[in-house]
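Work package 3, deliverable 3.1, input record:
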Amino acid sequence: MNRLMMKLTIGSEAVFFICLIVSYLFFWKSGNFQQEAAAHLHIKTTGLFTVLLLGSSFTFWRAEKAHSQQNNKGMKGWLIATILLGGIFLAGQGREYYNLINENVWISKSEFGSSFYTLTGFHGLHVFIGLIVLLIVLLLTMNGYLRDKGSTVVSTVGIYWHFVDAVWIFVFTTVYVLPYLL
Amino acid sequence: MKAILLDNIEHDLPVAHKDRVLLRWLSTVDHKELGILYLLAALLFFIIGGTEALLMRTQLAVANNHLLGPEAYNQLFTMHGVTMIFFVMMPALLGLTVYLTPLMIGANEMAFPRVNAFSFWMTFFGGLLLYFSFAAGGAPNAGWFNYAPLNQSQYSTSPGINYYAMGLLLGGIGSVTTGINIVVTILKLRVKGMTLKRLPLFVWMALVNGFLIIAALPSLNAALSMLLLDRLLDAHFFNTTSGGSALLWQHLFWMFGHPEVYILILPAFGIYSEVFQVFSQKKIFGYAFVAASSVAIGLLSFGVWAHHMFAAGLGNTMNSFFGASSMLIGIPTGIKIFNWIATMYGGRIRLTTSMLFAVAFLIEFTIGGLTGIAFSIVPIDWQLTDSYYVVAHLHYVILGGSLFGLFSALFYWFPKISGRMLNEKLGKWFFWLFVAGFNLTFFLQHFLGLMGMPRRVYTYQNIPYYTLLNLLSTAGAYLMAAAVMVLLYNIYKTVKGEKIKNKDPWNAFTLEWYADSPPCQKNFENVPVVTSRRPFYDLKNLEKRDVD
C-alpha cells in the first residue's frame, strides 16, 4: 500500500517536472538564453556533484539491502553516507547559486534566470525534503524501530529517493548537456 | 444552517464526548465524516458562488446598467468560476467519492485516513485563502483561466491573483493527495471476490478519475508556481513585456484544464450509472463498455487541450489535430449515453427526484455535448469564441452534467448519509424549478452568443433582442435561486425530521446499502464474499443470483 502510494506520488511529481523542463526548453530560443547558459554554467563542477548524487542512490540501495538482511549497523552507516552525499549535492547547488548571483544571474534578470532557478530550485527542494525524510529514517533505525524486515518504510522512501536522482539526470541533461549537443 | 446540519448528523454517530463536537469534527479522520465535511464545504461555497452569479445576472438584466462597475464585475465572474469549479464541484464530487468508495468496495476506511483529512483541510483552507483576497485589497479579476499577460502585476495590480495562485495551489495539492488516496484504496482494499470486473461503476469512474487527477493537476501546480514567481520575484515566465510567453500559460493551464472537465464529469457518470440501474431495477447495459469508454476518455482527455486555444493562432496543423481529437473524444461519451438509455429500456422505471435529474441529464448533457462538437470545428470556434455561446455550452455540460449528477446523488444517497429521506414532493418542486430556470438562463445564451454578445463584459448597448434575452436569462437565474431555496428548506426539514426504519429504501444493488443507514463507525462488521457486480442484490435474491 505504501509503495503503491509512493509510486503514484512520483508519477504526479514526474508530470510536474516534465512541465518545468518543457517550460525551460520553451525559452531556449528567446533572447540571450543560450549564450547565458553557456557563459554561466560549469558542466564539470556540476557533473562532479551529479556523480555524488547518483552515488547516493547506490548507498541507499546498500542501506535497503542491509535492512532486508536485518543488519542494523550497516543500515545506519549506508544511511549516513546517503545523507552526506545528498547534503554535499545541496551544498554544491548552494555554491553554484552563490556564484551565479555574484555574476548577476538571478530569477528576475532574464528568461534564463527564471527558468534555471525554477527548475533546479524545485529539484533542490525535493532533495531537501528527501534529506529530512532520510534523517527521520536514520533516527528510527538508531532507535531500532525498523528492525522488522517486512516494514515497507525503507523501500517506500527508496522509491522517492531514487526518483529524485532520476529527475536530476533529466534536469542535468536538459540544462547542462544539451547546450553541447544542439 | 451548517450548525444545525452538523448537530443533527452528530446524533447518529457514536460519540464519546458530546461536549467536544467541534474538536471531533476538526480532528476527524473518518472517511464518512470527511465526506460530509467536503459536502458541507461545497454547499457553503455553492451559496457564495451562486450569489456571485445572481449579482452578475442582476447587472446584466437590462442594457446600460450601472449597478456594478467593470472592476467589481471582473472580480465577480472570476470568483464565480474559480469557486464553482475548484471549491464546489471538486470538493463535492471528491467528498462523495471519499464517502462512498470504501463502503462500495466493502472496506472499513480509506487507505490513508490522515492523508484524507489533510486533503480536505488543504482544499478548504485553499478556498478560504482565495476569499481572503477580498479583505486584502481585491479579488482576482482575470477570469477563471487567468490568462497571461492579464495575470501579471502591471495589469492586475491588486494582490487578488496572488491569492488565486496560492489558494488553487493548496487546493491542487489537496486534490492530488485525494486522487492518490482513492486509487490506492480501490486497488488495495477491495473485499474478497470484488475483482476489477465486478467493481461498481461509480468506483470504476472514481478509479479513472483518481489517475486523471494525479496526472492533470501537476500541470496547473507548475503553472501557478511560475505565476507566483512572476508576481512576487519578477520572474519572466508569462510577462510578455520582459520576454515571457502568454502562450506558455495557455498551454500549461489547458493541459490541466481540459482533463479537469473530465475530472468533474467522470464521478457524475459514475453516479448516473448507479442511479439508472437502481431506478430501472435493471443491470447496467454494457458494463464493460461503460468502464472501458471511461478509460478511453481519461486517455484522450490529455490530447485535446489546444482546442481551447484555436483563437491563439497555433497554425493549421495544430488546429486540425486538436479539432480531430476533440471530435474523437465525443465518441466514448456518446457510447455511455446509449448504455444508460438501454439500461432504462424495459426496466421498471421509478421517476424519483434522483432519477428525474438523471433523465434530465441525458437531454441537457447531449445539448452541451453537441455545442462542444460544434466548437471542435475550428472556424466555428473562431466565430463564437469568447461569446455567450461558450458560456451556454460550458454551463450545459457542467450544470447539466456534473451538477445534475450531484443533485441526483444527493437524493439517492441522502438516506445512506443521514438515515433520513429527503421529501420527494419538495424534491420534485426543486427539480422542475431548477430545470426550468437552468434552460431559461442558458439556452437563450446560445442565441446571444450567435448574435455576437461577448462574455465577461459588464454591460451592453440596447441592441435589438439583447435586453429581452438577457432579461429572460436573468429571470431564469432567479428561478434557479428559488429552486435552491426549496432544496435548502428540504434538507433543513429532513435533517430535523424522523429517521427511516428501512436501511435500503430504494431496493439498491451495491454494498454501501448493506451497511446501516447511516453506517456505523466501522462501516461493516463482516462483508459477504462478492460473486457478481451486484453483491447486495445477490444477498436479497439468493435463488436468482447474478452470474458475472
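Chain A has a mean pLDDT of 94.
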